[in-house]
Amino acid sequence: MTRVSHSARAAVLEEKDGPFVWQDIEIDDPRPDEVLVRMVATGICATDAHVRRQQMPVPLPVVLGHEGAGVVERVGSAVTGLEPGDHVVLSYHSCGRCPSCVSAHPAYCDLAWEANFAAARLDGTQGLHRTGAELHGHFFGQSSFATHALTHQRNTVKIPPDIPLELAAPLGCGLQTGAGTVLQAFSASPGVSIGVIGVGAVGLAAVMAGNVVGARAVVAVDVDAARLDLARDLGATHVIDVRDTTDLSMALRGVTPRGLDIVLETSGRAENLTAAVDSLAPPRGRVGIVTFEQGAGGGVTSPQLARAFGARDRPGRRRLAAVAHHTGRPLAGRTLPRRPARHLLRLRRHQPGVRRRRSRARGQGRAPVPLLTPSERTSQPMCDKTQRPIVATDEPGFFGIDNYGFPVNRDDPLDPPEYYPPYLDTERFRTYRYHVEELRDGFYWVTSAGYDAAFVVTADGVIAIDAPPTIGENMVAAIESVTDKPVTHLIYSHWHTDHIGATPVYGPDVEIIAHEITKELLERFPDPNRPLPTVTFRDTYTLTVGGVTLELAYRGENHCPGNIFIHAPAQRVLTVIDIVSPGSATFMHCDASQNIWAWYEAHAQILEYDFDYFVGGHHMHYGTYEQVKTCVEYFADIHEGAMAAVERFSRSDRLDEILTATGPGRVWVGTENAINSMVNYTVKHVLEKRTSDGRLWSDRLAGVISQTKYHAYTVVEAIRLERPRPQSGYRLRGENPPPFIA
């Protein structure tokens, strides 16, 4: 049978360390499952250099190249989904029959070496020939250092024709290896911290992928200043020039003191691998290695892996949860090459900001029309040129615009001395700014003396409750101070960022439980530091982990929609955030709550539970049942005073008197005085009243003098706007002025 072939030219490597020499060759007509591609572009990867130096035993002479892109010229009779004229990217080859391939993990094909490095078809034959001499091809199923390549339909990926082929070529190996490690092998989620050691093609792809997923920190490490500049252009938040440091792990920890969630090591240097492991965040930091196990000349060997990991996996320092070791196989795909390649192309289409940032940094092209960020919008002047701008300073005595707004308050009486707990004066708290305390049987309370959270240690891991940014990574430090168990579950009390905005500190693999409304709000207002819950519920949810049970309940909207009750019945601890703050008057405006009457109703709902300890989310204390009752009594007095104030000052005769007292031309001053009259009446009622134990509120709760006026205003307005009015609560026709409730 006559062999049909096609003329081509290829860069042939004849011998170790030899030059690539252009020669005329012949390429077989495609077999039924093969494709003939006219090459337009190809990348040059370090793997090609390793083969040239024979650090990988690929037979010579050979046509290398494995990051090809081009146009289909001919297809075999059994090929589907491709036709002449299609633009394609070429990637690694696989057998398609082994368990890994059948389960859509061809990167781990049983015949990965034979399919990619044997420089022949899997049946041992050759499709590339030259006159009078042996020639090997099919490197990575393509041998793209040629004008034409004979490929297999499994490693030939169709791409849109508007994608420049010279940019698409590196997707076949380097880019999908780096990006695939972050996106697939690590499944990185928003808010993680990522370190990339070595920012060649693979490392830069990892940097871009970190930018795409919304990592809070992407640290690029290299010895080449130009590469580091490019890494910053492509999304790195920090760069480290190894020449400027004697301790790389310390430099990495200088970015994130707790350590990095993910580190990708691409340099193949043993000392960098050690630094990567040392810089991981406990207890579940992960490191990925892109190198060759044998013969890579200064690369990392398996014994070095054992030493690097074993020396640091000692009791009390669980620094490593997983390792991805790349031994020459593409780490990018757990699926066919077409899926990661096309996914990266979609990201390119939907992430134009990366390219724009690079162009602006290098002064190329027209600058786009500037769009204001939310913070920039709020800082734009909203006044005409005749108005004097207000300029904030960082001077110690600066206090906003107190000549127009609120005056500086320095004269209120001191809080009750028992409000300030002993831990505030300890050296540990002054140094680390957090306090952790066991309430009962593995249930711990954590505070920054401003914000509170909690966690429960179980036999199978730690359940965290909230992640306030004010506590931040100290939450993890608190957990590590009492257990080496990982955080496996996180409960969102509600959706507000001041209580869950540090969620990434727990790592990317935590199961998050929240009310379904919380998820809806986070979907509507996305935030990478508040990832979406993985488990939601409507009315109740029982979480049992390692022998510990927490009962979650939604009793209706209170502080905000979705705010839940978290009860630990065995430990007799109740957590309800932003309702009351034991020992204090609670933060202004009823803790900035949205539904005041539902918030009041939550007071009664809390007292329905049987608990000894209460976590309220704020200030310096956990509480007891009796302390919660005290707070409930305080707010009942505010309600009582506000009801009387509205009744007294809203009648038309009183209202007219107040409104007209300021004279003509000051209607808004009169309105302010009317509302303030009700507020002041309420405050006087509360502060001068003898409470149930005979003392004043200022003697029982901290913050009463400063906060009561804000609570009074909020409750007065809620009564005026939302409470039913008496039957005569509207103006009758012809009455002026009538005795009506305003």
Automatic annotation (TrEMBL):
Q: Which PROSITE patterns match?
A: ADH_ZINC (PS00059)
Domain Metallo-beta-lactamase: start-end pairs: 450-618
Q: Which cofactor does it need?
A: Zn(2+)
Q: Residues in domain Enoyl reductase (ER)?
A: 18-369
InterPro entries in the record: ADH-like_C, ADH-like_N, ADH_Zn_CS, ER, GroES-like_sf, Metallo-B-lactamas, NAD(P)-bd_dom_sf, RibonucZ/Hydroxyglut_hydro
- Which SUPFAM superfamilies does the UniProt record give? GroES-like (SSF50129), Metallo-hydrolase/oxidoreductase (SSF56281), NAD(P)-binding Rossmann-fold domains (SSF51735)
- Gene3D superfamilies reported in the protein's UniProt record: Medium-chain alcohol dehydrogenases, catalytic domain, NAD(P)-binding Rossmann-like Domain, Ribonuclease Z/Hydroxyacylglutathione hydrolase-like
Q: What UniProt keywords apply to this chain's record, in alphabetical order?
A: Metal-binding, NAD, Oxidoreductase, Zinc
Where is the region Disordered?
351-384
Q: What is this protein called?
A: Alcohol dehydrogenase catalytic domain-containing protein
Q: Which family does it belong to?
A: Belongs to the zinc-containing alcohol dehydrogenase family.
Q: Taxonomic classification, please?
A: Bacteria, Bacillati, Actinomycetota, Actinomycetes, Kitasatosporales
What segments bear the compositional bias annotation Basic residues? 351-363
What is the organism field in this record?
Answer: Streptomyces chlorus
Q: Pfam families, alphabetically? A: ADH_N, ADH_zinc_N, Lactamase_B
